[in-house]
Specification:
By secondary structure, this protein is an alpha/beta fold. It has helices at about 75-85, 105-115, 130-140, 165-170, 185-190, 200-205, 210-225, 240-245, 265-270, 285-295, 310-315, 330-340, 345-360, and strands at about 5-10, 15, 20, 25-30, 30-35, 40-45, 50-55, 55-60, 85-90, 120-125, 145-150, 175-180, 230, 250-255, 300-305, 375-385, 405-415, 420-425, 425. It has 13 helices and 19 strands. The protein binds (4S)-2,6-dioxohexahydropyrimidine-4-carboxylic acid and zinc ion.
């Protein structure tokens, strides 16, 4: 008797950790039951001829703004955007309004996710100067991917900027902490200095390379003292990337797709406030260093830092325009375009977007195609050409910094634990998202 599966993904090329194979995948009870299926039957077939079958792609850095302003984003719209863009999981940041910094707010969010999300989720808990004693317990909560520390201020009110408080946070628990690394004292001292020239380019002069590098040097000194592992989010300078290579026993590195795609000053000339984010998009030297870090393995993960703001607010004159760009829906198409251009291999993209987040955050059952792992898949057409447009974006604020970008490579289907939640640009079924599990 041929084997029977709930779902059979047929005719595609599977990207396994050890190479690409033209094999069929059998799914049962939401998990991968067989890699390489002969004669079999299934309740549902997903035809993947001409497509590559990737492990479900993960965006470990999004701000879904919920609770917050539903005219900008909600958990429902942000996770819908995620599956339309080929992601099977996102990790959501805590700088909401109010922020996720205590057990009650976390409990609310845990319940809310499982009623609302279209993809699986990890949740960050925000560190504050007053919740240090609760962090050890909070970081072990259901679905919590880790603690987030804003060591420099950005959107929202989260900030832990002095050495004593940061060290106390580091001593509080054991999982890897994720850091926004810009030096707050330097940010404050330089605010207001920049009024000449291209107003939006002033942003990168204010939050300059030294702000980021100084922040990272301070964090790594404290991480060394306390022995606590650190994930440095959105590393944006050549100097930090070189420096962090000497801290590989403690440090992991996130790069953002924006820093790998856009350069200053052109980005500000073209997009104005729609190009303003923290840490800023910088000059070509840093863009090249980021690509070198993709090539040589310094980078562990890639995120979008999806941080929606109303378009009208983004077009206010600097410095009144808020920092942050939408990106959860465009991360996969833009990265596939980089693959098509030969800037990285498909295997390295999968390493950065599946194995990388699974390793850094200790995600259980995710990040590779392997028997027994969750049946999360992103099916992609490496040859499909399409233009990214604002009107494709389902995040309510409705804009993307990549509007008008012609890309080669597109996500054709998204499968979350055996549920086909997106196919051919349509979201299917009901929200099936669950909180992820993390170890450590
Ligand atoms: O540009 C940014 N926007 N950087 C951050 O660190 C926060 C984010 C936001 O939440 O708007
Ligand atoms: Zn962020």
């Amino acid at each position: 008797m041929p084997a029977h599966y709930d779902l059979l993904i047929r005719g595609g090329i599977c990207v396994l950790p050890w190479g690409e194979y033209a094999i069929d995948v059998g799914v049962r009870d939401g998990r991968i039951a067989a890699l390489g299926v002969g004669n079999a039957t299934a309740d549902r077939m997903l035809e993947a001829a001409g497509l590559h079958v990737l492990p479900g792609l993960i965006d470990p850095h999004v701000h879904l703004r919920d609770p917050g302003d539903p005219a900008v984003e909600t958990l429902a719209t942000g996770t819908k955007a995620a599956v339309l863009g080929g992601l099977t999981a996102v990790f959501d940041m805590p700088n909401t309004a109010p922020s996720i910094t205590d057990a009650d707010r976390l409990a609310w969010k845990q319940d809310y996710v499982e009623q609302t999300a279209w993809c699986d989720m990890g949740l960050y808990v925000g560190a504050t100067k007053s919740n240090v004693s609760e962090l050890a317990e909070l970081e072990l909560g259901r679905g919590v991917c880790g603690v987030k520390v804003f060591a420099g201020s950005s959107t929202g009110d989260l900030l832990v900027d002095d050495d004593a408080s940061i060290a106390a946070v580091m001593r509080s628990g054991r999982r890897r902490i994720s850091y926004h690394s810009e030096d707050e004292a330097r940010l404050q001292a330089r605010k207001g200095l920049f009024k000449l020239g291209d107003p939006y380019a002033c942003h990168m002069e204010w939050r300059d390379e030294e702000c980021a590098f100084l922040g990272t040097r301070r964090l790594m000194a404290l991480a060394r003292q306390t022995g606590r592992a650190a994930h440095i989010l959105h590393v944006s300078t050549a100097e930090e990337l070189k420096y962090l290579r000497d801290y590989r026993d403690l440090a992991t590195v996130e790069l953002l797709v924006n820093h790998l795609t856009q350069v200053a000053p052109e980005v500000y000339e073209k997009l104005g406030g729609l190009g303003v984010m923290n840490p800023p998009i910088r000059g070509r030297r840093h863009y090249e260093a980021a690509w070198a870090a993709v090539q040589d393995g310094t980078a562990d993960t890639i995120g979008s830092d999806h941080a929606p703001h109303p378009q009208a607010a983004k077009l206010r004159p600097w410095p009144e325009c808020p920092a942050g760009l939408t990106g959860v829906q465009t991360l996969v198409p833009v990265m596939l375009d980089h693959v098509a251009a030969g800037r990285l291999s498909l295997a390295r993209m999968v390493d950065l977007m599946c194995a990388g987040p699974a390793r850094v955050y200790g995600a259980i059952g995710k990040g590779r195609l392997a028997a027994g792992y969750d049946a999360d898949f992103t099916l992609v057409d490496l040859k499909r050409q399409r233009t990214i447009e604002d009107r494709w974006i389902v995040t309510p604020c409705g804009w993307t910094p990549f509007d008008g970008m012609r890309v080669i490579g597109w996500p054709m289907a998204t499968v979350v634990r055996g549920h086909v939640v997106m196919q051919d640009d349509e979201v299917l079924g009901i929200p099936v998202g669950r909180l992820m599990r993390f170890s450590g």
